[in-house]
Automatic annotation (TrEMBL):
Cofactor requirements of the protein: heme b
Lineage: Bacteria, Pseudomonadati, Pseudomonadota, Alphaproteobacteria, Rhodobacterales
Name of the protein this chain belongs to: Protoporphyrinogen IX oxidase
Membrane topology: Multi-pass membrane protein
Keywords assigned by UniProt, alphabetized: Cell membrane, Heme, Iron, Membrane, Metal-binding, Oxidoreductase, Transmembrane, Transmembrane helix
């Protein structure tokens, strides 16, 4: 066994532990944010409204977004260390993109509720929570069962380079 392989094998369990820790924090945040947004009630005392607004904003910026970035970073490194260039991994990334969309929607809603002076009502927590549950269960199924998806019917244009030019001009160097 080469030195590099030994090094990579030794690092994988630690990186996986970090990956799981960061994504637990991220996903917990994606469940908490819709609940917190639903508590943005302008009929509350001004100080209480400011309190929940600040907790949501700072939680998003200083805890949930960094956890998302670090979960994705550790996952990205794991792809190369585990050489996981597989169909289940790419299917997982499509679902992770869904989680990123939920994350971006929450950020957009935090700003919209805070800055439109009552014009943007926060939505109920049910729909975003159900979407997150579906995405997380799909991801966990893919990553734990690692189904062989090699026979997945894909359109031909996804399976081979088509040799097309870009639809715009680019500099020669
Ligand atoms: C861009 C984001 C992500 C990337 C690139 C990524 C990539 C990876 C890779 C390469 C592994 C190692 C797989 C193996 O050793 O066989 C892994 C493990 C794992 N990932 Fe992710 N991941 C990402 C996000 C997530 C998310 C959002 C979740 C859950 C909601 C998740 C759940 C897991 C779990 C549970 C494992 C451990 C699987 C095992 O050891 O059998 N990952 N991830």
């Amino acid at each position: 066994m080469s030195g590099a392989a030994t090094w990579a094998e030794a690092v994988v369990p630690h990186l996986k532990a970090l990956h799981l820790g960061f994504l637990a924090l991220w996903v917990a945040g994606l469940f908490a944010l819709p609940q917190m947004l639903a508590r943005h009630d302008r009929t509350d005392l001004r100080a209480e409204f400011a309190q929940i607004r600040r907790a949501t904003h700072y939680g998003y910026v200083w805890a949930i977004t960094p956890a998302a970035v670090l979960a994705i970073l550790t996952g990205g490194i794991l792809i190369f260390l585990r050489e996981a260039f597989t169909v289940w991994l790419f299917a997982k990334l499509v679902l992770v993109a869904g989680l990123v969309a939920v994350h971006a929607w929450a950020g957009h809603t935090i700003i919209a509720v805070a800055e439109t002076d009552g014009e943007h009502e926060p939505p109920g927590p049910l729909a975003p929570t159900l979407v997150t549950v579906a995405l997380v269960l799909g991801i966990l199924f893919l990553v734990l069962a690692k189904p062989g998806l090699a026979d997945l019917p894909l359109p031909r244009w996804l399976l081979a380079p088509l040799g097309h030019q870009l639809p715009f001009d680019v500099p020669s160097r």
